[in-house]
Specification:
The complex is a heterodimer of chains A (about 160) and B (about 140).
Chain A: H1 8-36, H2 40-43, H3 49-70, H4 80-108, H5 119-154
Helix pairs in contact in A: 1-3, 3-4, 4-5
Chain B: H1 2-34, E1 37-38, H2 39-67, H3 73-105, E2 110-111, H4 114-139
Antiparallel strand pairs in B: 1-2
Helix pairs in contact in B: 1-2, 1-4, 2-3, 3-4
The chains are: A mainly alpha (about 160), B mainly alpha (about 140).
């Protein structure tokens, strides 16, 4: 059962599920945290529609692509440490690419730059973001391992 | 121009909520009353569900700015509860969708699992709970 190969449709569906669920959970949890600490009312209206579309759409797309890369065919056969290593690398990769592009575009756009345009400040922000991305990748990987186990249990009686 | 943009954003959000609540309710009833449901149909719903949920989170942020972000009172509480319900809905839906992916991996043509029925029921109830909270958030 563990080494059975997934057809392309199933692989794409899994990448869409895991990528979108990660994006939704991350964005909604961030919004909830900033609402509870009172900063949402100041920050959200300051982001225009075009910038918000880019920031959200780009994160969503990158996360789906990263989920597709982290979820090989026969993912159930992976050891837990290998699985978490893959999700940590995916999270770090998403954060690295996302922050680099967002900062570069932030400097050339007419909007205020998100960080001061210096090598050390940008490199520091991207490095911290990449580490945070790896940690989030591990958290997401652990959560989806639990979800996969619950999913297997939910359809257990199909084999009866 | 601004009116057109707001109408489009709100229309997409409302249509998306109709798809999520209606689709999960129909599939719940089908699994309960009819019995085996095509895994192919379920997997198409799951793909549509996640595409729609992603768009709804984005249009929801647009609506939030349009209606004004609540900071105190009943609207602020409704907003917090709504976000918590969305987090729960996403977690339950991840399990439900991965169940369908698991059935596809096992080459099952139809699904009857009782656990799956409960997951569609939970999706329907959670998404139906979010709708009145959205009403309170928009109108107070």
């Amino acid at each position: 059962m563990a080494d059975r190969r997934d057809d392309p449709w199933t692989r794409h569906l899994r990448a869409l599920i895991v990528g979108t669920a990660t994006t939704v959970l991350l964005v909604v949890a961030t919004i909830l945290a900033s609402h509870l600490d009172g900063s949402l009312a100041d920050t959200l209206p300051a982001v225009g529609t075009a910038a918000a579309t880019f920031l959200f759409g780009y994160l969503w797309l990158l996360t789906i692509v990263a989920a597709g890369a982290a979820l090989p065919s026969g993912v159930d056969a992976l050891a837990p440490a290998t699985w978490l290593g893959r999700t940590a690398a995916s999270g770090a990769g998403v954060a690295l690419v996302y922050l680099t592009i967002v900062f570069v575009l932030g400097f050339v756009s007419p909007l205020p730059a998100p960080v001061a345009p210096g090598f050390r400040s940008v490199f520091g922000a991207v490095a911290v973001g990449t580490v945070a991305g790896a940690v989030l990748g591990i958290v997401a990987g652990a959560m989806f391992a639990l979800c996969r186990r619950a999913a297997t249990t939910a359809v257990r009686d199909t084999d009866m | 121009m601004a009116v057109t943009q707001y109408v489009a954003v709100r229309s997409i959000h409302v249509l998306g909520s109709g798809f999520v609540v209606g689709g999960s309710a129909v599939l719940w009833l089908a699994l309960r009353a009819q019995g085996p449901v095509s895994v192919r149909l379920l997997s198409w719903f799951e793909a549509g569900f996640w595409a729609v949920l992603g768009v709804m989170v984005f249009t929801g942020l647009g609506n939030l700015v349009g209606f004004g972000i609540p900071t105190t009172g009943v609207r602020a509480s409704a907003f917090s509860i709504k976000l918590a319900c969305i987090l729960l809905l996403a977690a339950v839906s991840a399990v439900r969708s991965l169940s369908i992916a698991e059935l596809r991996r096992r080459d099952r043509e139809t699904a009857t699992a009782r656990g799956l029925r409960w997951l569609y029921a939970a999706t329907t109830l959670l998404s139906a709970t979010i709708v009145p909270l959205a009403g309170v958030l928009a109108r107070g």
